[in-house]
Write a structure and sequence with these properties.
Elements lengths: L5 H5 L11 H16 L5 H8 L3 H13 L3 E6 L3 E6 L1 H39 L3 E5 L3 H13 L2 E6 L7 E2 L2 E4 L10 E4 L5 H11 L5 E2 L18
Parallel strand pairs: 3-4, 3-7, 4-6, 7-8
Antiparallel strand pairs: 1-2, 5-6
Helix pairs in contact: 2-5, 3-4, 5-6
């Protein structure tokens, strides 16, 4: 905590600390793992490793200390060393199990949804499918496609700068994709927007929408003003 005394730091009012929730649990788990791996971490290194703001890293360190999950001791050169307490080890195990359970449930739901979409493709004779959106769902789709004997021809994602993703060529524009029979939406950040854009550029029937993305295939009808 830099040159600020640890006592002053942990006496920050509770209202300044981040709220509990799924994101909080994920950051806390990352912090506890970081502390276990390296007791001489700094706020800045935690922020960089977890991809959060420096102030947020400071707040989570304070929170974990308040909860008795980590112990902080001062070392030479006005620095601090962080150690997991027995309570911290127990909490890390609990959060890890919770994270793995959520991940497994997501994988199972995604695999079932994608298998249904690929079965629909086979029924209709669509053998060449593109993915719209790079990410976890696209990676799971590559596994399901192999089981369904579906050929994935590429990934459409304007935000990806790499030439390939999950072994597939990346296209930033629809016209740059290889020949395909249908496009499966795998975009997590803006699935509805992706569907709306694609359904205007091609037959909506050939834009596949996994159930877990909760995409509305019908445009809402707005009542006209009297």
């Amino acid at each position: 905590m830099g040159r600020t005394s640890y006592v002053r730091a942990v006496n920050t009012k509770p209202s300044s600390l981040p709220a509990d929730g799924p994101d909080s649990d994920e950051i806390t788990l990352g912090l506890l793992n970081a502390v276990e791996a390296n007791s001489t971490i700094t706020q800045r290194s935690v922020a960089q490793e977890l991809g959060i703001a420096l102030g947020l890293a400071n707040a989570y360190l304070k929170r974990c200390a308040r909860k008795g999950l980590i112990k902080v001791t001062q070392i030479p050169a006005n620095r601090y060393a962080y150690y997991l307490t027995p309570k911290g080890f127990a909490e890390k195990s609990r959060l890890t199990a919770s994270y793995l359970s959520i991940s497994f449930n997501f994988f199972r739901a995604a695999r079932n949804d994608l298998a249904e979409e690929f079965d629909r493709c086979r029924t209709r004779g669509w053998r060449r499918v593109a993915l719209a959106g790079a990410g976890d769902l696209a990676e799971i789709a590559t596994l399901c496609a192999a089981d369904a004997v579906i050929a994935l021809v590429g990934v459409l994602d304007a935000d990806v700068t790499a030439e390939r993703f999950a072994g597939l060529p990346v296209a930033t524009r629809l016209g740059d994709l290889a020949r395909h029979d249908a496009i499966l939406i795998t975009h997590f950040l803006r699935p509805q927007e992706t569907f709306d854009e694609l359904s205007q550029a091609m037959s909506a029937e050939r834009v596949l929408t996994p159930k877990l993305l909760s995409i509305s295939r019908e445009r809402p009808t707005l009542a006209e003003d009297d």
